[in-house]
Write a structure and sequence with these properties.
Chain lengths: ~220, ~120, ~290
C-alpha cells in the first residue's frame, strides 16, 4: 500500500473502530433514539481522526519526495471518503438488522446516508482548511467544532427525552418522504455528494499546491 | 610610519609589524632616536592585542633596531645605514639564489638577469 | 555548456520579505554557491528552485522542464537538503527509508545505509533523538541515495563538526567530477562552501547583486594598504570599505586589473601594499549598510 496512505489510515481506522465500538454498538443494543443520535457523532469523530492524522503529518518531508501534490491531496480525500463509506456500510447493516425489531425504518436508511454524505463534505472542507491555513489555526477550529458538535448532540439527546415537541431529525418530513424509496434516495444523495466531493478535491489540489508546507 | 596589518598575509601579525617597522627605519621614515608609539598606542591603532606588539618590539630590540628605556618608551636605535644595508643584502642573496636557479630552467643566464636589472633601474 | 537550472524573474512576497525578480542560470557540472546575509532570501529562493514552494511570478525550469509539468521526474533527479530538515519525529531512520524508497525510481538502499555508516547516524534511532547535525547528514544521505543529478543544499555545513564538514565538501567535489552532475548550495557563512564553489551568486534583500566566476572575482578584488597621500585621488575615491588608521589606511578595490599600471609606482616605493581579498570581504562590500 502507498506509504502515505498507510501511515495516515492508522488514525482514520482507529477513529472508526472507536466510533463503532463505543457508540455504534448502541445502535445494535439500544432502542430509539439510538439511530437518531449516534450518527450525529460521526462528523465529530471524523474530524478528530483527521486532526490526529494531520498533527502527525510532515508535509515538508513529503514535498521532497517525488510525489505530486495532486497525489497527496487525493490520498487524504480518499481517507475521508473511505471513513464515511465504511461507517455508512456498517451502520446501514445494523439498521437493516434492527428493522426486524421495528426500531429502524426506511427513513432511518436515508437519515444515515444524509449524515454520512454530510460528513464527507465537512471532512473535505476541514482538510482544505488545514492546507490553506495550517494546523496552528485549524487545530483550535477543529477543537471548537468538536466541542460544539458534541454539545449540540448532547443537547439534542436531552431534548428528545424530555421535550415531547422536540423534532427528531430522522423523522423530519423530507426524510420521511425520501424514505418512501430509501435506496433510490440514498443513491441520488450519494451521487450528488460525490460530485460535490470531486469539486472540492479539485479545489483541494490547487490549495495544496499553493501551500507553503509550513505545517 | 606606515604599518597596516593583513589577516590574509602568510606571515604572523607580530612579524608583519616587525618587518614594516624595519622598512620604515630603512627608508628613513623613522630616524634614529625617533620615539616609537607605545605598545598600547600601537595595539589600539592596529586593533591587535598588546601581546602581539610587545613581541614585535622585543624582536626589534633583539635585532638591535630599537632600544627600550624603562618608563620612557621605545626609540629607534642609532643603527647605521650600512648595517641595515648588509642585512638587506643577505636577504637579497637568498632571493637571488632562488631566482637564478628557477630562471636557469628557461635558459636565462645571470647575464640576462643583470641586463634586466639595469633596464628596471632605468624605469 | 548545458544549463541544468534556469530561473527567470522569480518574485515571491511574504509579509516582511520579498524575492524580487531573481534570475539565474546554473551550468551542468558546476558547483555554484549562493551567498548573502541572513534574510537575503537564500532559503526562500532555494525552496522555489527545488520545487518546494511556488513563486508568485516568474518561472523555474530544471533539466528543461517546469515543475508543473514534470514534478515527479524532476524530484527524482534532484536531491534537496533544506536548512532544517523535517522528518516524522517518532519514526526511526530505517522506517523513513522504507517509507521513501517506493517513491523513488532509483532508490539505492545499500548506498543509503553505507552513507549512514560513514556519517555515524544510527538507522535504528528515532528522528527526535538525532542532533541537528545528524538530521542534516540524514537529509544529505537521502539526497545522495536516489540517483540525483542536481543537488540543492541550504547551508549544509552549518551544524556539522569539522570532520564531517570536510568530508561533505570533498564529497560534493567528487559528486560533480565527470561533468554530468551539478551542485547548487547556499550559505551565509562563507565557511567551506566558498572553497569549492566555482560560480558565485550574491543575494541581498531578495535580489541578485552579483554573479561571477569565483576566480575572476578574486582576481579583480584586492585590498590596497596605503600611506595617506600615496594614492592618486581618483583611485582612492574608488575604494570601498575604507579604514583610516593612525599608521596607514586600507581600502578594497574591485577594479584591480585596470589599476595595476597606476599602482606600479607607489607599490615599488613601498608606500602602497596589496593583499588578497576573501569572498567574505567582497560580499560585505555588496551588502547595503555593511
Amino acid at each position: 500500500m502507498d506509504p502515505i496512505l498507510r501511515r495516515s489510515s492508522f488514525f482514520y481506522v482507529t477513529a472508526l473502530i472507536t466510533y463503532m465500538g463505543l457508540m455504534g454498538r448502541f445502535m445494535l443494543t439500544r432502542d430509539w433514539p439510538a439511530f437518531e443520535v449516534i450518527p450525529l457523532f460521526l462528523p465529530v469523530w471524523l474530524i478528530s481522526g483527521m486532526a490526529a492524522s494531520e498533527h502527525d503529518e510532515r508535509y515538508a518531508f513529503l514535498r521532497m519526495l517525488p510525489v505530486p501534490d495532486r497525489t497527496v491531496a487525493r490520498t487524504k480525500f480518499i481517507l475521508v471518503l473511505s471513513f464515511a463509506a465504511v461507517a455508512w456500510a456498517l451502520m446501514t447493516g445494523v439498521a437493516l438488522v434492527r428493522m426486524g425489531d421495528g426500531l429502524a425504518g426506511s427513513p432511518t436508511l436515508v437519515y444515515l446516508t444524509l449524515v454520512c454524505v454530510s460528513a464527507i463534505l465537512i471532512g473535505a472542507c476541514y482538510q482544505i482548511g488545514i492546507w490553506r491555513y495550517g494546523l496552528s489555526i485549524m487545530f483550535p477550529v477543529i477543537g471548537v467544532s468538536v466541542a460544539a458538535g458534541l454539545a449540540l448532540a448532547i443537547i439534542h439527546v436531552a431534548n428528545l427525552k424530555y421535550a415531547d415537541e422536540w423534532p427528531a431529525l430522522s423523522r423530519l418530513g423530507v426524510v420521511e418522504w425520501l424514505g418512501g424509496a430509501p435506496w433510490i434516495s440514498s443513491a441520488v444523495l450519494i451521487a450528488l455528494a460525490l460530485l460535490a466531493f470531486r469539486a472540492l478535491l479539485h479545489l483541494g489540489v490547487r490549495v495544496k499546491a499553493a501551500s507553503e508546507a509550513h505545517l | 610610519m606606515f604599518v597596516v596589518l593583513s589577516p590574509a598575509h602568510p606571515d604572523p601579525m607580530y612579524k608583519q609589524v616587525t618587518d614594516q617597522i624595519k622598512d620604515a627605519i630603512a627608508s628613513g621614515d623613522l630616524k634614529p632616536n625617533d620615539r616609537l608609539p607605545s605598545v598600547r598606542e600601537l595595539s589600539e591603532a592596529l586593533n591587535v592585542s598588546a601581546i602581539t606588539i610587545k613581541r614585535a618590539y622585543q624582536d626589534l630590540e633583539t635585532g638591535g633596531f630599537v632600544l627600550t628605556r624603562a618608563g620612557l618608551g621605545s626609540y629607534v636605535a642609532p643603527v647605521e645605514r650600512d648595517a641595515l644595508r648588509e642585512r638587506k643584502l643577505a636577504e637579497l642573496q637568498e632571493e637571488l639564489r632562488r631566482l637564478v636557479r628557477s630562471s636557469a630552467k628557461f635558459g636565462i643566464t645571470a647575464g640576462d638577469i643583470v641586463r634586466l636589472t639595469r633596464q628596471v633601474e632605468g624605469d | 555548456m548545458d544549463t541544468v537550472l534556469e530561473a527567470t524573474d522569480l518574485t515571491k512576497h511574504y509579509e516582511d520579505f520579498s524575492l524580487r525578480g531573481v534570475s539565474l542560470a546554473i551550468r551542468a557540472g558546476s558547483i555554484s554557491g549562493i551567498f548573502g546575509p541572513n534574510a537575503a532570501g537564500k532559503s526562500t529562493l532555494l525552496r522555489v528552485l527545488a520545487g518546494q514552494a511556488p513563486a508568485h511570478q516568474g518561472s523555474v525550469q530544471v533539466f528543461g522542464s517546469a515543475y508543473a509539468d514534470a514534478e515527479q521526474d524532476l524530484k527524482n533527479r534532484i536531491g534537496y537538503v533544506p536548512q532544517e530538515p523535517v522528518f516524522y519525529p517518532d519514526k526511526t531512520v530505517q522506517w523513513l527509508a522504507r517509507f521513501a524508497a517506493p517513491y523513488f525510481a532509483r532508490w539505492d538502499g545499500a548506498g543509503f545505509y553505507k552513507l549512514l555508516d560513514e556519517f555515524k547516524v544510527n538507522p535504528l534511532k528515532k528522528v527526535k533523538h538525532l542532533s541537528g547535525g545528524q538530521k542534516t547528514l540524514l537529509s544529505i544521505a537521502m539526497a545522495l541515495s536516489h540517483g540525483a543529478e542536481l543537488l540543492i543544499l541550504d547551508e549544509p555545513t552549518a551544524g556539522l563538526d569539522v570532520v564531517h564538514r570536510r568530508a561533505l565538501l570533498d564529497r560534493l567535489r567528487a559528486f560533480v567530477a565527470g561533468g554530468d552532475r551539478t551542485v547548487l548550495a547556499a550559505s551565509h557563512i562563507t565557511d567551506g562552501l566558498d572553497e569549492i564553489a566555482e560560480e558565485i551568486w550574491f543575494l541581498d534583500d531578495g535580489r541578485v547583486v552579483a554573479h561571477e566566476d569565483k576566480d575572476d572575482l578574486l582576481a579583480r578584488w584586492k585590498w590596497v594598504h596605503f600611506k595617506d597621500g600615496a594614492l592618486p585621488k581618483a583611485i582612492e575615491e574608488g575604494l570601498v570599505r575604507v579604514k583610516r588608521l593612525p599608521f596607514g589606511s586600507s581600502g578594497l578595490t574591485g577594479d584591480f586589473l585596470n589599476l595595476r599600471g597606476a599602482l606600479a609606482g607607489p607599490l615599488a616605493s613601498g608606500d602602497v601594499r596589496l593583499d588578497n581579498a576573501t569572498l567574505e570581504d567582497v560580499l560585505l562590500s555588496f551588502i547595503k549598510g555593511a
